[in-house]
Design a protein that fits this description.
Elements (H helix, E strand, L loop, with lengths): L10 H4 L4 E8 L3 E2 L11 H14 L5 E5 L7 E5 L1 H9 L4 E7 L3 H13 L6 H15 L3 H8 L3 H9 L5 H8 L5 H8 L4 H14 L3 H13 L11 H21 L3 E5 L4 E5 L4 H12 L2
Parallel strand pairs: 2-4, 3-5
Antiparallel strand pairs: 1-5, 3-4, 6-7
Length: 286
């Protein structure tokens, strides 16, 4: 699969050398692919397809591979939505193309099918890349070459797996987007990341707003010339820092306090006339 055009072609063209017989198989003889990279197939999605299958049947065959250890049984290689929907629609058999593939080829087939779908979860994509690297001893370059994608896209996807548990759960659950996740990854301090995640979920921050917040979080942690502060000064800065966090969550923009307890200024950022209007509205709200 060295060609970068692989993902733009149908599965039967990409894997023409592996295709075998096409026949109708009992649904009970087919098992879910243990290497299926896509974990988040919604029940509603399957139900909608089942309704269509109930009226028109399965128009596109699924792909299966024969199990060597159990004659007459098959692993599902591609077409899990159709397989699940056919069962839901009450079918007993489904049209299937039998392919002769090894474990690596099975995973590649499942990946190609899912990568052609625009709704594949970014975490499912990243997990599949990692499985390929671990099971087949591939580098990022090797995964990219096998699947016909860029190495940078593989690297960026894999970075998502280094998110903390709460951020991973939010991404998996659709509470944040992949763009939000990348903004969270840029915040190394876990406490600051937790605050940003809360702001994204509670205040509905856009990706751009989250990125600005992340940049501000990093900037405020840059090393500055060391200077001894009194306990009172430290306590004041902690109190102000906590207040600034709350203000940023409420306003949805970056806020800085310049100066000290007796003298200074408060700065708030905006990047368009619309954002300025929104900021003024929030500041002047009763």
């Amino acid at each position: 699969m060295g060609s970068r055009r692989a993902l733009g072609r149908g599965l039967e063209n990409v894997f023409a050398d592996t295709l075998g017989a096409r026949r109708s198989l009992p649904l009970t003889s087919i098992e879910r692919n243990p290497r299926q990279p896509r974990q988040g197939i919604s029940d509603a999605d399957v139900a909608g397809l089942a309704e269509s299958i109930g009226r028109h049947g399965v128009l596109q065959p699924i792909m299966v591979s024969a199990r060597d250890d159990q004659p007459g049984r098959y692993y599902l290689v591609a077409g899990e939505r159709r397989w699940r929907a056919a069962r839901l629609a009450g079918l007993t058999e489904v049209p299937a193309t039998i392919v002769a593939v090894d474990d690596r080829r099975q995973l590649e087939l499942a990946l190609v099918e899912n990568l052609q779908r625009t709704d594949l979860s970014p975490l499912d994509r990243a997990q599949a890349y990692r499985v390929m690297m671990n099971e087949f001893d591939l580098t990022q370059e090797g995964v990219a070459e096998a699947l016909g994608v860029s190495r940078s896209s593989v690297a960026n996807a894999l970075r998502l797996l280094s998110l903390d548990v709460a951020s991973l759960a939010a991404l998996r659950g659709g509470e944040i987007t992949e763009g939000h996740a990348r903004a969270l990854l840029s915040v190394s301090d876990l406490a600051a990341r937790v605050r940003l995640l809360a702001a994204i979920k509670q205040q509905g921050l856009s990706v751009r707003e989250a990125e600005r917040w992340a940049e501000g979080s990093g900037a405020e942690r840059r090393k500055r010339p060391s200077r001894r502060r009194s306990p009172d000064d430290e306590a004041w800065r902690r109190e102000v820092g906590s207040a600034v966090d709350r203000i940023q969550r409420n306003l949805g923009t970056r806020v800085r306090v310049r100066g000290g307890e007796k003298r200074g200024r408060v700065e708030m950022e905006y990047y368009s006339a619309e954002e300025l209007t929104q900021l003024i509205d929030r500041l002047t709200a009763a």
